[in-house]
Design a protein that fits this description.
Elements: E1 2-7, H1 16-30, E2 34-40, E3 46-47, E4 50-55, E5 57-59, E6 67-69, H2 73-82, E7 86-90, H3 95-106, E8 110-113, H4 118-124, H5 131-143, E9 147-150, H6 153-161, E10 167-169, H7 186-192, E11 198-203, E12 224-229, H8 235-241, E13 246-249, H9 253-261, E14 265-267, H10 277-284, E15 289-292, H11 297-300, E16 307-310, H12 316-330, H13 333-346, H14 352-368
Parallel strand pairs: 1-2, 1-7, 2-4, 7-8, 8-9, 9-10, 11-12, 11-14, 12-13, 14-15, 15-16
Antiparallel strand pairs: 3-4, 5-6
Helix pairs in contact: 2-3
Domain Glycosyltransferase subfamily 4-like N-terminal: 14-177
Protein name: Glycosyltransferase family 4 protein
Domain Glycosyl transferase family: 191-344
Length: 379
């Protein structure tokens, strides 16, 4: 099978969309399929054996280091020349719409992946009044795709609420070999917790939309140390708010896996996650999760079994529940171990191999069938 992946972001950017595309094409090639990536530049024009077509872009005003793709005739040329069996639209916005239009003109079936809550993102930056426009664009784009895949029940409900048809649930996979409890590093723990502190960690982009300012409420919990893994525009502010915290910066591969597995409690603060891959990687590493009861985290965390959920509102109640969840785990090593074991068990059926097989054998095959035989009801 030949798959053209049109993505709103790809390497060298490090974010949920880019990482998901990387895992997708790795798995496709490993199964003998052919892939093409089309993404905003600048960047490398190959990824391993896979060609990467770079389209025009400009720096996103909020993130100057994040290129925002522009409509580009090269999208249609690349798809025409590659002649794919299916076009995979990864979190489509602008470049994705170009890919969708090109596929329509060429009669190529499409699958669209809903991954970014743009409205929620905008609200964190004070962009009021954008809801109607953004949801109208979202409905227009995804309604034209052969099938839309949502990563969580909450994301599927969002799309159904704005009347997007043919919505199906397709969760993201996790690398179960990389993220596992055995990656826990006594040496790293000794350096981070020289006095035996409980390590409470945040992993991800350190940015306003993740509400990382809430981490300050954990900085004074007795017997704990706050660890931040990642980078972003709010890192210095978090350091100011939580001066006793330690920052490990952006990590990858084995270093990232060791850092996650070496935590005692994983904390996420963002309330607009359509999935939250960082939380799933923590679960795979055997680390209980404390996170907002919203979005994709509702599917990932089972309260009282694999972690705790707190009120997602930025209120006294939400802050109190965040602190209580972390403190309960920090004070009870037996509970932490039990939840950590349950956390690992909860994701054992979500390896990337199984997830990509489902994508190819169920979702791609469905849109590639003759139009008269395609289902139109969400499953």
């Amino acid at each position: 099978m030949r798959v053209a992946v049109v993505a709103e972001s790809f390497l060298p950017q490090v974010n949920g969309v880019a990482n998901s595309v990387r895992h997708l094409v790795d798995q496709l090639v490993a199964r003998g399929h052919e892939a093409l990536i089309i993404a905003p530049g600048p960047g490398e024009t190959t990824y391993g054996s896979i060609p990467v077509v770079r389209v025009r872009s400009f720096p996103f005003p909020i993130y100057r280091d994040l290129p925002l793709g522009l409509p580009d005739a090269s999208v249609r040329r690349a798809i025409t020349e590659f002649a794919p069996d299916v076009v995979h639209l990864a979190s489509p916005i602008v470049v994705g719409m170009s890919g969708l239009r090109a596929a329509e003109r060429l009669g190529i079936p499409t699958v669209a992946i809903y991954q970014t809550d743009i409205v929620g993102f905008g609200h964190q930056y004070g962009l009021v009044g954008i809801d109607r426009t953004v949801w109208a664009w979202t409905r227009r784009l995804y309604s034209r795709a052969g099938r839309t895949l949502a990563p969580s029940s909450a994301a599927a409900a969002q799309l159904s609420a704005i009347r997007v048809p043919r919505v199906h649930l397709w969760q993201r996979g996790v690398d179960l070999r990389q993220f596992r409890p055995s990656r826990r590093s006594p040496a790293l723990r000794a350096s981070l917790a020289p006095n035996g502190e409980v390590l409470v960690g945040y992993v991800g982009r350190v940015a306003m939309e993740k509400r990382v300012h809430l981490l300050r409420h954990l900085a004074d919990l007795p017997g704990t140390r706050l660890v931040i893994v990642g980078d972003g525009p709010e890192l210095e502010e978090v350091r100011r708010l939580a001066p006793s915290s330690v920052s490990l910066g952006m990590l990858h591969g084995a270093e990232l896996a060791a850092a996650v597995a070496s935590l005692d409690v994983f904390v996420h603060t963002g309330a607009h996650e359509t999935f939250c891959q960082a939380a799933q990687e923590a679960l795979a590493s055997g680390v209980p999760v404390v996170a907002p009861g919203a979005g994709g985290l509702l599917d990932l965390v089972t309260p009282g079994e694999t972690g705790f959920l707190f009120d997602p509102a930025e209120s006294a109640v939400g802050v109190a529940e965040l602190r209580a969840g972390v403190q309960t785990l920090a004070e009870n090593p037996v509970l932490r171990r039990a939840m950590g074991q349950a956390a690992r068990m909860s994701v054992l059926e979500r390896g990337w191999e199984r997830i990509i097989d489902q994508l190819v054998n169920v979702h791609y095959r469905a849109v590639m069938r003759p139009a008269a035989s395609r289902d139109t009801v969400a499953a």
